[in-house]
Design goal:
The complex is a heterodimer of chains A (628) and B (581).
Chain A: H1 15-28, H2 30-62, H3 74-121, H4 125-130, H5 133-140, H6 142-175, H7 177-224, H8 226-231, H9 235-287, H10 295-336, E1 348-355, E2 358-361, E3 369-374, E4 380-384, E5 389-396, E6 405-412, E7 417-422, H11 428-435, E8 443-448, E9 451-452, H12 458-463, E10 465-468, E11 477-478, H13 479-483, H14 492-501, H15 505-510, E12 518-519, H16 528-542, E13 546-550, H17 558-572, E14 576-580, E15 592-597, E16 600-605, H18 607-613, H19 616-623
Parallel strand pairs in A: 7-14, 7-15, 10-13, 13-14
Antiparallel strand pairs in A: 1-2, 1-3, 3-4, 5-6, 5-8, 8-9, 11-12, 15-16
Helix pairs in contact in A: 2-3, 2-6, 2-10, 3-6, 6-7, 6-10, 7-9, 7-10, 9-10, 14-16, 16-17
Chain B: H1 2-6, H2 13-45, H3 50-99, H4 102-107, H5 110-152, H6 154-201, H7 203-208, H8 212-237, H9 240-264, H10 270-311, E1 332-339, E2 350-357, E3 362-366, H11 373-378, E4 388-393, E5 396-397, H12 403-409, E6 410-413, E7 422-423, H13 424-428, H14 437-446, H15 450-455, E8 463-464, H16 473-485, E9 491-495, H17 503-516, E10 521-525, H18 529-532, E11 537-542, E12 545-550, H19 552-558, H20 560-571
Parallel strand pairs in B: 3-10, 3-11, 6-9, 9-10
Antiparallel strand pairs in B: 1-2, 1-4, 4-5, 7-8, 11-12
Classes of the chains: A alpha/beta (628), B alpha/beta (581).
């Protein structure tokens, strides 16, 4: 039910993917699947046996008694009993396998989703930067849905269809060879017809899917810009263009559905024809006494031939959904096969305390942290976490051969504030991406408290660096949960203190449920400024020695901006801070201002130094006043 | 609801009506086939009459071919009708959206309008095709098969009357029981999508707070809920097949039992027995189809409702009769104007605004978030209608103008502006379809866009990606301004349209306006004082009311809000960036 309208057939079935999918079944559900397997066989065989038994019933138990006065019905009743038992076996086994199959298919889907999510969490930032969000999302939704259809329906149905075909065919041969030949001929015709119709319909389904994509894209773009359309009185033009692609979609849809709709009646009619021909041939053979054909035999043969048609049309229908599932599975496995983030770090962050002036590790939460640095010779060093950062000749590019940072050297002593200034694309954000190792540098060295950050375990490195990003990301949950996002064991008091520090306390208290207000949709009910305050509070609670602040740029009004700025200032106090500045007002009191241009440092110094230099910074700074 | 949907069938009425008719013929023949088959067996095979076998056999062949022909005809007609119906629905919806006023657009989110055009239509289309094909077929098959069964043998046919209700009730029970569980699980499914989306978007937060495991555990819980929900619902649905098999088996066993006795007593023939079994199959299959339709309709009902909501949405802004088709000049007057987005006098966004703006004047507007700056200007091109009072342009009430005339003369660069996929030239021609290349370049020069556009390898033929993602924020804003300039309007409104443009370029744009389009009334909304300080007059808005009007110098002296904003900006410098993402 989850997948109603995806009819894109991609007629190829990749064996490797199929194998991998089947492995999910065989590795986790060996016993259950074996039961299903046996049940399907039993149920199929009983269905076939049921129709065969009708012949026996008529020929052996009914016909001999016709016209007999006061017939003895015991054996007839027994035969009916046997028939009932055969059917009962079929019903019970199919009940068992269809229920177990639900467990298996839903279980596999859960495993696949879980595996995918776990894997996704381990992927490097680069993956997220190079794939659109919609693309990643659709692997969890549309792609997984195609699998659900295939595992829960197609596999058992195709399996049972194949068994039916084989069983029925064997039964037919046993029953009568001549009549089987008739069926065999019509089978060949059916396969041909099915193939030609199905291939045509799949051709148009692919086109239909493309046309749908086009219409969706157009509608999305136009509706997004609907206000602009109105302002420019562009409605008529928008309608004209829409009509064109809508008409095309209709055309492809008609063609695709036409062939799909024709398939069933065609197979049905062919089935009927086969039935009739069998009756005629059988009848003539019976009348002329060729091949020991009895009435009962013809009847049960007719019954068999009907049982024979259904699985054929079922398989032809299921092939489509299997092909679709293959396409979905391919995308899912693509994500799972991505290279995860590598971490060769061995320096870890531990709680520490000074015992007799010597830094030692402890289990207590002392508020004092130390880097635990094991050396090759087996000795251990403890280095106090202070927040001293140095970059030496750092080169970096997101793609090979295309450096976006050149020869960056700079340092920040514990407690110093360093500001990056420069145009979009100058490389400000990139530098911060390197500090927490979202990306790894190409050349050069970054040291943290004297340790090369490549030696530090990524998790520990990131915990020691606080981040307040330009775009605030909040998670579904209460405000409190969001503030203590990085520190689950924080007390309410700590949460409130952090919120007060970030100037967020006041507005939180004005919300109907205060700290327990539930946020959804990335905090859509809050204003941009309020969301930023929450992200500052979140960072404050974690209390890291080093902070990276990417100032918000959206146009929040001056008053809110002041509040946000004030919160940031309090957060920065006493920490090593890297600020990506968008408003020069915030950088004046920095220890050093670094002006970047095209990935190079072009100026550095204090506010006063740089003004005195009358270089780029001076121009930027005075730009605002040029009209005075 | 159904009425408004049916309207969209339009030119496909023929196919819509023909489909069930074709289907009926097909069905009737299909039902007749087992009947003749019985005759063939009894009078032909059993009696060894070759002639009967051949005659009836050929008759049956013809019947099968006719049923095939009608099957194909109905399949085609159904495909045509449903594809056409979907097309018209989509078109009607889209056309109606084009007529929406801003109030209407605000009411629906963009995402929801798009889903209604796509997913919801797909559902309704599928249900529609199902209904015209199967909704007639299934009951018809049921009734005819029953009649035929009764014609063959009344006593045996009574067995059906027992079996049908039992199966029917069972199928109905499963469908109705499973449906709410599915619905519930679908909301959990939304939660799953939500957590994935949150994590994809916020992956930097997740990684810097090292909360991967926390997120994974959250995910496990939700995916576990989904597993439990779907497993429960699917298990119910999984009863369908065995139930069907059960009903079928009971019927066949009973028919064999009773029928066998009747045959022995020579009041029934073997041929009749087999045709009864065929009818049994047909009857039960049609019941199965009916239960499928039931589920389909249940599932598409919500979609249909969402589509109808759009179809029945009436635009809140219309042309008056005999609209004025010419705007005399660029003067603007607000007379006691109040406005509420929700049409509620207790929730006014603008309160009793009065102002006279002369043609050719430049007006700056300053105010905090929520001071209704955008609301104020949106009343001028009649994007919204004033709740109270009058807005006049060129001394005529905006409601009396032809909308197109008014909006062509009042160009507005929206705060949330959009470029469309296509070349830069194509985008600019939105302002004026017939603009020459010279005019385009001129407008771009005024908007300070010519320089960077010429810098692109393809110049004005550079292709803009959907959403304008391949130009920077500041470039986008300048292109949007150029697009508005091409209209050669009498009034030009910039709603915070240079926020991402650096201050120097910003001032160059204003200088160009001053020099080259001095007769155009200009209204500039800005966060930066520097963007408005040289305007003829500046309006300070606060909480939907005019707090002060005057020149920069006057306001500095007299207006507290203005002075506050000014000092906060000047003290620390100002935006320094060309473009902020």
């Amino acid at each position: 039910m989850k997948n109603q309208n995806n009819n894109t057939p991609r007629p190829k079935i990749d064996k490797d993917i199929l194998k991998r999918l089947l492995k999910y079944i065989t590795s986790n559900y060996k016993l259950k699947f074996t039961i299903v397997f046996i049940c399907i066989i039993l149920s199929t065989v009983s269905t076939v046996a049921g129709s065969l038994y009708l012949e026996v019933l008529i020929d052996d138990y009914i016909t001999p008694l016709i016209g007999v006065q006061n017939p003895v019905l015991t054996s007839f009743m027994q035969a009916i009993g046997v028939m009932a038992i055969i059917y009962a076996v079929g019903i019970i086994t199919s009940l068992i396998y269809s229920r177990i199959m639900v467990d298996i298919s839903e279980g596999i889907l859960k495993t696949i989703r879980d595996d995918m999510f776990v894997k996704m969490q381990r992927l490097p930032i680069k993956y997220f930067d190079t794939h659109t969000h919609g693309d990643i999302m659709s692997r969890y939704t549309a792609d997984t849905d195609t699998l659900s259809q295939m595992i829960s329906q197609s596999i058992p149905q195709m399996f049972s269809s194949i068994i039916t075909i084989v069983a029925v065919f064997v039964a037919m041969i046993v029953t009568n060879l001549y009549l089987t030949l008739v069926v065999f001929c019509s089978l060949l015709i059916m396969l041909r017809v099915t193939k030609s119709i199905a291939s045509r319909s799949s051709k148009y389904f692919i086109r239909q899917q493309e046309a749908i994509g086009k219409v969706n894209g157009y509608i999305e773009e136009m509706i997004n810009g609907q206000k602009v359309v109105k302002v420019f009185c562009h409605e008529e033009k928008a309608k004209e263009e829409f009509d064109k692609i809508n008409e095309e979609l209709c055309d492809q849809m008609y063609k695709a559905n036409k062939f799909a709709n024709i398939l069933m009646p065609t197979l049905g009619a062919l089935g009927n024809l086969q039935y009739i021909i069998l009756a005629i041939v059988g009848g003539i053979l019976a009348v002329n006494g060729i091949g020991n054909i009895t009435v009962g035999l013809i009847i049960s043969f007719l019954q068999l031939s009907k049982t024979f048609i259904r699985p054929i049309s079922q398989i032809s229908q299921q092939l489509n959904s299997v092909a679709m599932a293959m396409a979905g599975a391919k995308r899912i496995f693509e994500l799972m096969d991505e290279e995860p983030e590598k971490d060769n770090g061995y320096v870890t962050l531990v709680n520490a305390e000074y015992v007799d002036g010597v830094l030692t590790e402890t289990d207590k939460r002392t508020g004092l942290w130390a880097w635990k640095h094991p050396h090759h010779d087996g000795t251990l060093d403890y280095i106090e976490l202070k927040g001293h950062i140095e970059l030496y000749d750092v080169d970096f590019g997101y793609e090979e051969d295309n450096l976006v940072l050149h020869d960056i050297s700079l340092y920040a002593k514990p407690g110093q504030k360093i500001a990056f200034v420069g145009a979009t694309g100058a490389g400000k954000t990139t530098i911060t991406n390197l500090l927490n190792r979202f990306y790894d540098i190409e050349d050069g060295k970054i040291r943290y408290d004297g340790i090369n950050i490549k030696k530090i375990k990524k998790d520990d490195l990131r915990l020691s660096l606080g981040m307040v990003l330009q775009d605030t990301n909040l998670f579904t949950g209460t405000i409190k949960e969001n503030i203590k996002y990085g520190k689950d064991d924080a007390t309410d008091e700590e949460v409130i203190n952090a919120a007060k520090l970030a100037n967020a306390h006041d507005f939180i208290m004005r919300l109907p449920d205060g700290y327990d207000t539930v946020l959804t949709g990335n905090g859509a009910s809050l204003s941009q400024g309020q969301r930023q305050l929450l992200s500052i509070a979140r960072a404050a609670l974690n209390d890291p020695p080093v902070m990276i602040l990417d100032e918000a740029t959206s146009s929040i009004d001056t008053r809110t901006e002041k509040i946000v700025q004030d919160g940031m200032d309090k957060l920065m106090d006493g920490r090593t801070v890297f600020v990506i500045a968008h408003r020069l007002s915030t950088v004046r009191n920095s220890k050093a201002i670094i002006v970047l241009d095209h990935g190079r440092i072009i100026e550095r110094g204090t506010h006063e130094d740089l003004l005195a230099q009358k270089g780029t910074y001076y121009q930027l700074y005075t730009g605002a006043f040029e009209l005075e | 609801m159904i009425k408004s949907l049916i309207k969209s069938i339009k030119e496909y009425k023929k196919q819509t009506i023909l489909t069930p008719i074709f289907v009926s013929v097909e069905t009737i023949i299909e039902v007749l086939i087992p009947f003749f088959m019985a005759y063939l067996i009894d009078n032909g095979i059993n009696k060894g009459d070759e002639k009967t076998i051949l005659v009836i056999g050929i008759l049956l062949c013809i019947a099968a071919i006719i049923s095939l022909v009608f099957g194909i005809l109905s399949g085609r007609a159904a495909a045509k009708a449903s594809a056409g119906f979907a097309k018209n629905l989509r078109k009607d919806m889209y056309y109606n959206v084009q007529n929406f006023s801003f109030t209407n657009i605000d009411k629906f989110s963009t995402a929801s309008i798009v889903t209604r055009h796509t997913t919801d239509i797909a559902f309704v289309q599928m249900a529609f095709q199902m209904i015209i094909r199967v909704a007639v077929r299934a009951p018809l098959m049921l009734v005819f098969s029953l009649i035929m069964a009764f014609l063959v043998n009344i006593k045996l046919a009574l067995i059906f009357l027992v079996a049908i209700p039992i199966l029917g009730i069972g199928l109905y029970f499963i469908a109705t029981k499973a449906h709410p569980i599915f619905e519930k699980t679908f909301t959990t499914y939304d939660k799953l999508n939500n957590i994935v989306q949150e994590n994809v978007q916020g992956i930097r937060v997740v990684k810097s707070y090292v909360t991967e495991d926390k997120e994974i555990n959250k995910f496990y819980k939700i995916s576990g809920d989904i597993y439990a929900g779907f497993a429960k619902a699917e298990k119910l649905v999984a009863l369908n097949n065995p139930l069907m098999q059960f009903a079928m088996s009971v019927v066949i066993v009973l028919i064999s039992l009773v029928g066998g006795k009747l045959i022995i007593g020579t009041s029934l023939t073997t041929g009749e027995l087999t045709s009864l079994i065929s009818y049994a199959m047909q009857i039960l299959t049609s019941l199965m189809m009916l239960s499928m339709i039931l589920v389909m309709i249940m599932m598409s009902r919500a979609s249909a409702e969402r589509i109808v909501e759009i179809l029945e949405e009436k635009s809140t802004i219309h042309n008056n009769e005999n609209p004025v088709k010419e705007v005399k000049d660029g003067s603007i007057t607000f007379k006691n104007v109040s406005f509420s987005y929700v049409d509620n006098k207790d929730k006014l966004c603008l309160k009793n605004v009065n102002i006279d703006i002369k043609s050719g004047e430049t007006i700056g507007i300053i105010g905090g978030t929520g001071s209704s700056k955008s609301t104020f200007v949106q009343l001028i091109p009649r994007l919204y209608d004033a709740t109270e009072g009058e807005v006049l342009v060129g001394n005529v009430n905006v409601k009396d103008y032809d909308l197109k005339t008014l909006r062509n003369e009042v160009a507005m660069v929206l705060q949330k502006n959009v470029l469309f996929s296509g070349t830069i030239k194509e985008n600019l021609r939105w302002g004026n379809e017939n603009a020459t290349d010279e005019e385009i370049i001129k407008a771009c020069k005024q908007a300070q866009a010519d320089e960077f556009v010429s810098g692109f390898p393809d110049g004005y033929d550079t292709y803009i990606e959907q959403g304008g993602t391949n130009v920077s924020g500041g470039q986008k804003q300048r292109l949007c301004i150029a697009r508005a300039l091409l209209k050669k309007p009498k009034i030009l409104i910039l709603d915070d349209s240079t926020s991402a443009v650096d201050t120097k370029t910003d001032s160059l744009i204003r200088k160009a306006f001053k020099d080259e389009i001095p007769n155009t009334t200009q209204i500039i909304i800005a966060q930066r004082i520097s963007s408005v300080e040289d305007c003829d007059r500046i309006i300070v808005l606060d909480g939907g009311e005019i707090n002060g009007i005057g020149t920069h110098e006057e306001l500095l002296k007299t207006n507290k809000i203005y002075e506050e904003v000014y000092s906060s900006q000047v003290k620390g410098g100002n935006d320094n960036e060309e473009s902020k993402q």
